[in-house]
Structures are given as C-alpha cells and as structure tokens.
Amino acid sequence: xxxxxxxxxxxxxxxxxxxxxxxxxxxxxxxxxxxxxxxxxxxxxxxxxxxxxxxxxxxxxxxxxxxxxxxxxxxxx
Length: 77
Description:
Elements: H1 4-19, H2 37-51, H3 57-62, H4 66-76
Helix pairs in contact: 1-2, 1-4
C-alpha cells in the first residue's frame, strides 16, 4: 500500500504536468484558475490511465482536487 502523502505528491505532479503550472496537494478546481472543465477532463483521463481506474460520471465530477484524486487512488491500491 502506498503512503498517502507520497500519493498526494504523485497526483500533484500529474495535475501540474497537465495544467502547465506547479500545484500542491491542496490544489483544486476552486483554487487553480487554469483548472477549467477541459483541463479537468484531461486530468481525469490521465489519472485513470496512471492508476488503472475507471471512474463513472458522478466520480469524474466529484473528484475535483488533488487530495480527492489521491484518496480515490488509495482505494484502488
């Protein structure tokens, strides 16, 4: 099982790569101006591929922060 803090750092790096700016584990759609709906879908698809998960529409909409994504990845591990 992965360490939750390390997983948050991994997810933050993934989100940072897509957004083209460095974000921390506290980043969310509400706090990062560049995290719009199109970027959100890019993040979701990259997250699914990186962590081997498939999210339904409700999860895609609800997972709008680095911490939320990391918590979801922990469930998969």
